[in-house]
Amino acid sequence: MKILLTNDDGIDAEGLAALADSLAQLADVTVVAPRYPMSCCGHGVTTTKPIQIEQVRDGWYWVDGLPADCVRVGLLHLKIEPDWVLSGINHGGNLGVDIFMSGTVAAAREASLLGYRAVAISQYRHPAVHVPWSLSAERGVEVWQEIHTLPLQQYQLWNINLPAVPGSQNSDLESERSEPRPISKPIIAHCHPEPQPLTFHLEPSEEGLIYRSSYQSRPRSEHSDVAQCFAGRITCSKLSAVHLHSAE
Known about the structure:
Elements (H helix, E strand, L loop, with lengths): L1 E5 L7 H11 L3 E7 L18 E5 L2 E4 L3 H11 L6 E8 L11 H11 L4 E6 L9 H15 L8 E7 L5 E2 L11 E2 L5 E3 L9 E6 L2 E6 L11 H6 L3 E7 L8
Parallel strand pairs: 1-2, 1-5, 2-4, 5-6, 6-7, 10-13
Antiparallel strand pairs: 3-4, 7-13, 8-9, 11-12
Helix pairs in contact: 1-4, 2-3
């Protein structure tokens, strides 16, 4: 099996390296990732200037561009013919309407538009929970293995979010006094993206306006990906690359 791997956190991101290592045990992996971090860039592409590319080691390339550019370079210039295009592991959740601004999801969406099966994998991060990237990668690969045989129609892709439960089950929806419950792997929940956006405000400062929000207190409906991920479950959402809603 051949896999094209990319991300939006850049070629040096821990999540990318961990996922590449885990996938290398199962497939022939080629990494084509942005030279620099490009978080929250959405589905931008470079059309008005040359795109620089450099091979940094065997099977690893950086692209001086956006995540969707990386997919285009890998598929159209490097002529990789992957069975799957994976994007991640993102350093932070891509839940709900965040998918519209996510470079991680955009890379998978671009692959879907070009006719390839694709999945975006993100690690939700809670400030009180340390992220062991090797474990995140192991979980991400396990989930991908479970869903990769499920049907995907043309222009569909998967969006996976891993919860912040490194070695125990303890979510922000449980009592703060409850004891963590050891688990081997979080439950997988197939769900739709949360339609309510993350609330935020712009705080004036001497330097200008500063974005402020509280990710952990964002609005959520009971069965949405936000609620399920915050409750300690791995969320899987099947998205449409051409419609502004989740796929059925």
